Amino acid sequence: MLRTRLNEALKEAMRAKKQRTVSTVRLILAALKDRDIAARSRGVTDGIPDSEILGLLKTMIKQRAEAIQLYEQGGRCELAEQECEEILIIKSFLPRQLDESETRAAVDAVISEIGANCIKDMGRTMAELRGRYGECMDFSVASCLVKQSLA
Question: Is the per-residue pLDDT at 28 higher than 90?
Answer without folding.
Answer: yes
